[in-house]
Amino acid sequence: MTPYTIPAQTRIGHVHLKVADLERSLAFYRDLLGFSVTLLYGDQAAFISAGGYHHHIGLNTWYSKDAPPAPTRSVGLFHTAILYPTRRDLAVALKRLVDARYPLTGASDHGVSEALYLNDPDQNGVELYWDRPVEQWPQRPDGSLDMYTRSLDLNNLLAELR
Q1: Beta bridge partners of 57
Q2: Predicted structure pTM score
Q3: What strand order describes the sheet that includes 106-109?
Q4: Nearest alpha carbon to residue 82 among 140, 17, 19
């Protein structure tokens, strides 16, 4: 095969998740995280988005209505990552989670980004994060990226709201 590099402007447009209960998933993605519903297919599927895009996340029960979560130790999606435009926006999301007493599974500083980790009601992993400006990304002496995983100071993040 001829070597190929995907265009730099390529983006991942949306994720479509199998869920057990559409209303329960909408309570999480729409009511808690703040996505807007752009289209409902009866009680079987919904498309949701930020900012009026046709959909960032599809939710459906076509093959999964009332099904249990997928086993943790199996192949499949590790998590869906939702990129917030600013650190303050991530702090607002954290405050909503804290106020709703919604549990986090982790919170990390990766050098290039800060991230909150949680599971949706079907135990699908969700990462909420913001990227630091590229010029602040840590680099190794040879100029390559130096990502890491350190504990994220949640109080410091919440201080963005003061």
Answers
A1: 15, 48
A2: 0.95
A3: 80-84, 125-131, 113-119, 106-109, 150-151
A4: 17
Residue 136 token pair = 């602040």
Per-residue pLDDT of the chain (162 residues; tens, 9 = 90+): 999 999 999 999 999 999 999 999 999 999 999 999 999 999 999 999 999 999 999 999 999 999 999 999 999 999 999 999 999 999 999 999 999 999 999 999 999 999 999 999 999 999 999 999 999 999 999 999 999 999 999 999 999 999
Phi (first) and psi of residue 34, to 5 degrees: 95, 10
Which token pair is 158? 């919440």
What are the structure tokens assigned to 25, written together?
Answer: 């998933």
Reported as type and span, the H/E element at residue 46 is strand 45-49
Q: Would you call 48 exposed, middle or buried from its count of C-beta atoms within 10 A (0-12, 13-18, 19+)?
A: buried
Query: Residue 139 in contact with residue 145, Cβ under 8 Å?
Result: yes
DSSP letter at 136 equals G
